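Shipment paperwork, digital attachment
Item: protein structure file
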Amino acid sequence: MNIRPVFTLGVFACAALAGCSGSSSTPAGVTTSPALTLRAPGTPATIGTLTVSSTAFVTGTVMPPSVAQIGCGSGANISPQLSWSGAPAATQSFVVTEFDQDAPTGVGFWHWTLFNIPASITTLATGAGTNPPAGSTSGLSDYGTVGYGGPCPPTGDGAHRYTFTVSALDEAAIPGVAAGATGAFITFNIRGHILAQGTYLGLFSL
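Attachment content:
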């Protein structure tokens, strides 16, 4: 069965651009709004909104070199800091994903999936992609490795758009989804359980 994620439109500011740091420049010719927001099949269009922010870069701008995969420029494969707010009271866990919609694969590229994040956690520290918080579960990136896999777009391909999506769920753990699950499988299995969602957009090119 070919399961294809369904997308809707949306991009959220970095806490009204307050408290953010990093480059504020956008490469010429790159469209940063609207960004694609990942939604599981069956998710209502009326879910709540999470406000996602980062101290590493302003949404819609270039991410720092350290987030890239090792061997890509000066990449160190360090996931950026992320925070979110506005989760409904019924939230029992969060899911964080990073997806490159511009990857030359025909189906995009999953760079990071972290799920079963306890509801008490609303911040991921820098480097959490390879050192996740207690209680959370890391999924499989499209590099074939568990945990965070930084950007590494083809040289000269222009800036790719990397959408970080945070989803608040009404369940503490996704049933039937174990460590090392793929982004598509995780997305399919959270259908009907998303209470709120927010995105944050990063750009990267070589």
